């Protein structure tokens, strides 16, 4: 996300200002949203009952898990692309294998790594949230080192630190005025993290204290993103010198390294494996587990969180993500602008808990059909009306983003 701002024509400090503004705003929402999970040890589907009613909560739950299914499939394909880079670093002749498909959008050399990545994700999902913490720890230590290595490689090969930063925002077609690019960029940064502001209780319910989740997120998200954002902006700027264009996707960046150099191939192998691990952990935890929580709340008699997460993995491969990404521009615009619906959900939930109810919740009543949170036959009409009102002003922009003409 930070690197993509360079491709809009921003220089390094404009990109960092835009990126960190969006991150600071969404950090507030994530931290506030995580309090209910940490204080009452309840997941997002249960938190939703407080605002929307026991039946009305199905509305945000369904809107969320469908998105999680799609994003799981997209990240599944991207994880396969990471593994593809790793294989090529070891076996350059891998590109010569037969196509194997009549479908023009997929090749066997891409399909095999995708399936391997998918198979690797199943046992990770089956372990559950608490048991995959070691994988998060490995990723948390490895990826900063990988980012620094890529940063150093960029400095050495792109002409030095100052010359790279000077390249930021240059060689960009259709450069946008900073004023408009700033607000568009801030919105995109927030939208990229919006789902975590909503589903945050799915994780913070495991927190021992409210203070632990509050300090943990309020401090580490801005600091971590400041570090990550700077590396991304620098490396994306370096790609202008190295490859003649601003490349914001790290996998595309490392795949363009000259394979004739043994050092480059070693870096491609290590970095590709690192990004593959990152996508594996984030996809399982950030999409499959969220979907599992949501689906288990819809049919608790038949679905556990683990079963719902595995169902997400099955749907993710069955939707043929390579077909979705073959027309990536319109489809990815749809995914990014889907926050038109997620934002109002988060707004209703936060305003209801912090302002309307003043942080007072009868937890046992959230599980009691016919209780105080049953409202009008299971639906809380004021929250649903507020949700619709929050969606309407942004809906024309959503239609425009996905290429549908609108008269409004």
TrEMBL record:
Subcellular localization, per the record? Membrane
- Entry keyword annotation includes Transmembrane: yes
Pfam families on file? Transp_cyt_pur
Q: Name the InterPro entries on file.
A: Pur-cyt_permease, Uracil/uridine/allantoin_perm
Membrane topology per record = Multi-pass membrane protein
- In which broad location class does this protein mainly occur, judging by the first location in its UniProt entry? membrane
The source's domain of life comes to: Eukaryota
Q: Which keywords, in A-to-Z order, does the entry hold?
A: Membrane, Transmembrane, Transmembrane helix
Would the keyword ATP-binding be found if you checked this record's keyword annotation? no
Q: Where are the transmembrane segments?
A: 12-35, 110-129, 141-166, 178-198, 219-243, 266-290, 310-332, 338-356
Q: Which family does it belong to?
A: Belongs to the purine-cytosine permease (2.A.39) family.
Record-linked PANTHER family: NCS1 FAMILY PURINE/PYRIMIDINE TRANSPORTER, PURINE-URACIL PERMEASE NCS1
Protein name, entry field: Uracil permease
Tell me what organism the protein belongs to: Basidiobolus ranarum
């Amino acid at each position: 996300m930070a690197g993509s701002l360079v491709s809009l024509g921003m220089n390094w400090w404009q990109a960092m200002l835009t990126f960190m503004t969006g991150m600071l705003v969404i950090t507030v929402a994530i931290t506030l949203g995580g309090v209910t999970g940490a204080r009452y040890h309840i997941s997002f589907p249960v938190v939703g009952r407080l605002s929307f009613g026991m039946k009305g909560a199905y509305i945000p739950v369904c809107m969320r898990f469908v998105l999680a299914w799609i994003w799981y499939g997209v990240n599944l394909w991207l994880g396969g692309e990471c593994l593809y880079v790793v294989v090529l670093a070891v076996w350059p002749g891998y590109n010569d294998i037969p196509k194997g498909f009549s479908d023009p959008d997929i090749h066997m050399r891409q399909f095999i790594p995708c399936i391997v990545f998918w198979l690797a994700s199943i046992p990770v999902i089956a372990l559950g949230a608490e048991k995959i913490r070691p994988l998060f720890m490995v990723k948390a230590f490895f990826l900063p080192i990988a980012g620094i290595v890529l940063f150093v490689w960029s400095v050495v090969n792109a002409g030095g630190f100052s010359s790279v930063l000077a390249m930021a925002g240059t060689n960009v077609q259709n450069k946008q005025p900073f004023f408009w690019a700033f607000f568009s960029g801030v919105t995109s940064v927030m939208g990229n993290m919006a789902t975590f502001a909503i589903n945050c209780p799915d994780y913070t319910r495991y927190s021992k204290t409210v203070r632990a989740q509050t300090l943990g997120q309020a401090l580490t998200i801005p600091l971590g993103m400041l570090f990550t954002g700077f590396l991304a902006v620098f490396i994306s700027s370096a790609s202008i010198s190295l490859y003649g264009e601003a490349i914001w996707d790290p996998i595309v960046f490392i795949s363009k390294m000259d394979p004739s150099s043994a050092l480059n191939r070693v870096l491609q192998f290590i970095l590709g494996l690192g990004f593959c691990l990152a996508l594996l952990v984030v996809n399982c935890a950030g999409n499959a587990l969220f979907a599992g929580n949501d689906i288990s709340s819809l049919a608790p008699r038949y679905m556990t969180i683990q079963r719902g997460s595995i169902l997400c993995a099955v749907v993710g491969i069955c939707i043929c993500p390579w077909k979705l990404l073959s027309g990536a521009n319109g489809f990815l615009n749809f995914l990014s602008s889907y926050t038109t619906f997620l934002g109002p959900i988060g707004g209703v939930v936060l305003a209801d808990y912090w302002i309307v109810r003043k942080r007072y919740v009868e937890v046992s009543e959230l599980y009691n059909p016919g209780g105080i949170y049953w409202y009008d036959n299971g639906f809380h009409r004021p929250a649903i009306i507020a949700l619709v009102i929050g969606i309407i002003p942004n809906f024309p922009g959503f239609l425009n983003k996905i290429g549908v003409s609108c008269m409004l």
